Amino acid sequence: MSFEFAMKLADSKLFPGTDSTLDSKKEVRKQRRIFVYIPKAYKDGTKAPILVMHDGPSNMNLVRNALDNLTISTDPNRKLPAFIAIGVENGGNDGKGSERGLEYDTMSDRFARFIHEEVLMAVLQNPDIRKVYPKLAFTNNPWGRGAMGCSSGGAATLTMGWFRPDLFRRLITYSGTFVDQQDDDAPEEKSFPLGAWEYHSGMQLIEKSEKKPLRIFTHVAENDLRFNDPEETYHNWVMANERTAAALQAKGYDYRYVFSKASKHCDKRVFEHTLADTLVWMWKGYRGE
Description:
Layout: E1 2-8, E2 31-37, E3 47-48, E4 50-54, H1 60-70, E5 84-88, H2 99-105, H3 110-125, H4 127-132, E6 137-138, E7 145-150, H5 152-163, E8 170-174, H6 205-208, E9 215-223, H7 237-251, E10 254-264, H8 268-282
Parallel strand pairs: 3-6, 4-5, 4-7, 7-8, 8-9, 9-10
Antiparallel strand pairs: 1-2, 2-5
């Protein structure tokens, strides 16, 4: 069953839309929409696994179709748990100086905390949802909590797991913005001057940090953004994602990397051809409560 409601940015403790790094020329939304899909296979009162989807509703239709068909699959190798999909709209605009950029491209645990402390609680307390599912509950097991996003939403996904693996451990990124797109005035610049580029280059965060308990899917398109840019721009998506995948492999992470030919940034065709299989792979090994 599908639900939709809104959260006012002004009511948020973490992203009220008034950050000092915001560019006044870039519009900030007054409220963000939240999209929730609860599959028929979910039994009210059980602690459900969840998948948080950035730039909601994102690919909710594809996720919903996968849930409807694969939660009832009799093939143990092609089956999904009855997770609840939660699409979260970004705060508005894009790039440095934007609310979306602040939320997605900043190298900190802030967005993970926002999802955990504010969005998930709002879903559980929503009156329309409670009418239908009065005993709705989410698992606290981080292996039952995933995130998915494309572009900066992909960067946000990796950052959620990287900084808070105690909260989110199953990560799906398409055309991930693992480039230098963190705001130049962000306090995090002191620790991560090249933003998400630091994951694979510069500081080599992935290879030089202690291995984290994460399961990670990454993807990039052959004709992704700025694929011909030289390294010194820190803005070549293909280079960034190939290096991220190589770093994950070198560190021994449980990961999958897809390079899609004859395709572009956040290509709809790639999602249509791969997302169901990606979800099955991502949830492999999960045992419900």
